[in-house]
């Protein structure tokens, strides 16, 4: 049982919450109660979860030496010696095989998106994560692919403003992840290579830009003529309040409590953030489908 727990930690099941972004097109295209669209979105979620699990395993396999120097990451299964390199390779292969099985049930265009996600993240693990600015851009692109995949799999188009909001959300979390990591290793010569090219001042500026980008792009989406015409209401603008609170709360946790290196853990453990997310979702559903 302990071994199974280590395997689940290796593929980071908790981080699969990020793949919920594939449901964004389902909700905002007013297809939430269409059984076919729902089933396709669930398949997309499973495909991205298996693909991201593969990426996490590969990342931990190559980063094991660095992770052993990290105060938190040293407890990851491979770095801590709970899972061997051979076991990691077998698990990675199994995840790819399972994802291929699922991909046989979806459209060809979605397969290309999953392939792009895997290839880009593989390159990120090998090299791109060492390139300043580009490292966080690659993370943001991964979230964009999730939303694009969710749209493709149910054959709908998504607002450009909503896509921009997704990019800024991902950039925001990625920059804060770097900021927390930088603060933990600021005076440590063993820190990740790319952290030498950052500074707290730069990361603070990037955080402000990306955080502001979330609020502005979502606000513009909520008041755009296309959105009001699509949903036949002007009330979506009121949900901006939840977005603002979410951004501010995340900033508070990152700056005052030095959290955010693991976005999934932060979101799933902070009660105010959870309640804000629930209220936001309920309001959006009421406004769009009520």
From TrEMBL:
Record-level Gene Ontology MF annotations: glycosyltransferase activity; transferase activity, transferring alkyl or aryl (other than methyl) groups
Domain of life: Bacteria
Cellular component annotations (GO), alphabetically ordered: plasma membrane
GO biological process: glycolipid biosynthetic process
UniProt keyword RNA-binding, yes or no: no
Transmembrane segments: 39-62, 83-103, 160-177, 198-223, 235-255, 267-289
Subcellular location(s) of the protein: Membrane
Chief localization: membrane
NCBIfam families: PRK12324.1-2
Protein name as annotated: Phosphoribose diphosphate:decaprenyl-phosphate phosphoribosyltransferase
